[in-house]
Amino acid sequence: MSGDELDQLSAAEEDYLRSLTTADADGDERAVEAALRPKRLDEVIGQSRVRDQLGLVLEAARQRGRAPDHVLLSGPPGLGKTTLAMIIAAEMNSPLRLTSGPAITHAGDLAAILSGLNEGDVLFVDELHRMSRPAEEMLYLAMEDFRVDVVIGKGPGATAIPLEIPPFTLVGATTRAGLLPGPLRDRFGFTAHLEYYEPHELDEIIRRSAQLLEVEADADGTAEIASRSRGTPRIANRLLRRVRDYAQVRADGRVDRDIAARALDLYEVDASGLDRLDRSVLDVLCRRFGGGPVGISTLAVAVAEERETVEEVAEPFLVRRGLLARTPRGRVATPAAWRHLGLAVPPSAPHADADPTLFEDDPAG
Hints:
Helix content: 40-55%
Number of helices: 15
Number of strands: 9
Strand order of the largest sheet: 2-3-6-1-7
Structural class: alpha/beta
Strand content: 5-15%
Shape: globular
């Protein structure tokens, strides 16, 4: 949407859009996200390989009448790791206990959690790679022998008291599987890596979510949202809610391609799924640094963001789209990045004479 079109928004409409967004962010957002999650394995869209493998593991455990093996789920954020953990508990008719790696700072924290488990419970630990080392070592014994050693006292007089815990299933989730030590990875009976979703899979997810949200959307409208969702269901559902708000305020409530495109332009998500931060990174890299190479810290300062934000939020998608390349000397813009910004590729730019197909992903991917 152009600046002139934005100016045409009345003050009341602008306030209403903000109120909708604020309400979602405060609490409704989490409630809506929970409602949109599939509850059973056969409701999951996409990830067919993981779905089939996990279904086999759970069915075998049900037939044996035992808790399933420990499960490790890895992959980028927003692809459904938490949802799969909830589904595992639901499929096994077991309670789900949730915690996260950063919350377990001491071995005693983990011992308290484990001692409160009942037989067959599913323990979900998000961001498993961020668990403290002492807790991690305690987890080895708990996963393998279903017991923990509680140390009483200090120094030479310290005594280790073994504490038996009932058989349980640990579901660990991580966005950085490479940071997990080998002994921990080896103790998981089933490991799954979640891949980015194809546009047609996201389209199906959006159509399902639109039905649950009672949003009237045609095929072209959902396809437009899917094409800008970065291969991630969490982003797809978030964009759907923002398009719903726009359609409610600026149109008749029905989502078609034109309404979806105008809404997402308003929220600064372009046709390739790049947001404000992504475009800022490319713009600084091309216009200010001539395409690079540029160190990640310098790039972060130039866009006024933390290094971790640029490295973990913007960079993976830009690399996957073939717009940015990582080199030993720093980050460089590819010819596709210059063209995305509507700029001519200068002869002095890195990779200026490279075959574009080396860097450009399929637009549908």
